[in-house]
Design a protein that fits this description.
The complex is a heterodimer of chains A (397) and B (97).
Chain A (H helix, E strand, L loop, with lengths): L2 E4 L15 H6 L1 H4 L5 H10 L1 E5 L5 H11 L3 E6 L23 H12 L4 E6 L7 H6 L3 E4 L4 H14 L3 E7 L2 E7 L7 H4 L20 H19 L8 E6 L4 E6 L21 H4 L16 E2 L1 H9 L4 E5 L3 H6 L5 E2 L5 H4 L8 E5 L4 H12 L5 E4 L2 H8 L8
Parallel strand pairs in A: 2-3, 2-5, 3-4, 5-6, 10-14, 11-12, 11-13, 13-14
Antiparallel strand pairs in A: 1-4, 6-7, 7-8, 8-9
Chain B lengths: L1 E5 L2 H4 L7 E5 L3 H11 L4 H4 L10 E5 L2 E2 L15 E6 L11
Parallel strand pairs in B: 1-5
Antiparallel strand pairs in B: 1-2, 3-4, 3-5
The chains are: A alpha/beta (397), B alpha+beta (97).
Chain lengths: 397, 97
Amino acid sequence: MATRIQSPTGPAPERRVSGLSKEEILRYSRHLIMPEVGMEGQLKLKNARVLCIGTGGLGAPLGLYFAAAGVGQIGLVDFDVVDFTNLQRQVLFGTTDVGRPKITAAADRLRNLNPEIRIDAIEARLSSENALELFRDYDIIVDGTDNFPTRYLVNDACVLLGKPNVYGSIFRFEGQVTVFGYPDGPCYRCLYPEPPPPGLVPSCAEGGVLGVLPGIVGTIQAAETLKLIIGKGQPLVGRLLLFDALAMKFRELKLRKNPDCPVCGTHRSVTKLIDYAEFCGIRGEEAPSTVTNIPEITPTELKSRLDRGDDLYILDVREPHEYQICNIDGHLIPLGELPRRVHELDSSREIVAHCRSGKRSAEAVEFLQKAGFRKIWNLKGGILAWSDEVDPAVPKY
Amino acid sequence: MAVKVIIPTPLRAYAGKQESVEVQAATVAEALSALTTKFADLKKHLFAEDGRLRSFVNVYVNDEDIRYLQKDQTSVKAGDTISIIPSIAGGLRHAAL
């Protein structure tokens, strides 16, 4: 169940304020002197209630700019703990926050930035069981988690409750932003009725993100949210904004409300929240490999066989840039190149395939088995497990 | 007619790492066929086994979704841009569910 830590300061949600204190007028003076915001807009911000799902890469600029702008009630939902790999982009956190619950570190940072507002720190995993109840207390929902199950859950809950859903997504150096769930506007399912099957989701080899990208995309989401609150400008409704940081180009595509949409169309088949992990084909954080009967060898077993002098051929199926981070002297053939480079391998030798965590190499083993290789094993847990079990000098990434 | 097909980041690995590819085509279907003939690895990412465009891949001619035009029979003319827009999610490893 969600743990709520109420801010000791800030107004209760039911209390609509109609004025600003002297300190607030000074704090928000750069808003107050521009006619598009002014006193009217600033009071709208102060009376606004925004829920941020996730306090990570997208959630960081969202939280910071909402707090700085004086959004009166900010809900933060997260369950994770700050780790070192977060610091490259999650600018809410500092090195001394590593190991702390994100929700605590984020709430501390935002309260320090602006003690005039109310922060609801909600330590929870968003789920079909708690989403509707959580969303009811807020006017606008901003999804900063950027994963498929949460995205469909947030979309459906927002459509069911009639609340705007400010959407952002990132991939390496490309981003997408739009506003869903606006009256008469499209929803995420109008755009993509179904998620991709897990096997076709780009693997960790193709993942990664330029640290500044969630900053840019999250800041655009924040700008759209603030515009919705003050009711100024043209909201990013019915338009999908595409951003490419490498080319440094913005493009815009038209989004239409799909009359056949299962959740917001004329013949609705989704009228309540469903099991989104199942819908997206994911169970838990690490989806179990669909590949079965893959022969495995543990790092410890591999080490002792190598120490015995056994003739084992190590095949590394990661990408060249990963090989540069760390390697165990394997022969590098990226998974995607394996079909056309299979002749480089000698099927009479014993082969151990590995990748980062064991998923890609399992695919490689399956492929090679089909190609007639019989003496082949997958290194269980990949080079990460090798670092844990055999050689801690091998860095993890 | 020469049309430009913009390849999204997640699919560039299957298209010779190119950002865009120029193909000769009069319809979207012809353009995608020319593209997947040139880059066979792209095919399974764009089309399901029944040959239909996958539901998590949308195709636009200039700024319009082909689902609201003539689908894959939408005609294209010289200078048009076809965009392939798959659903993306950078935060999958930290799914909140």
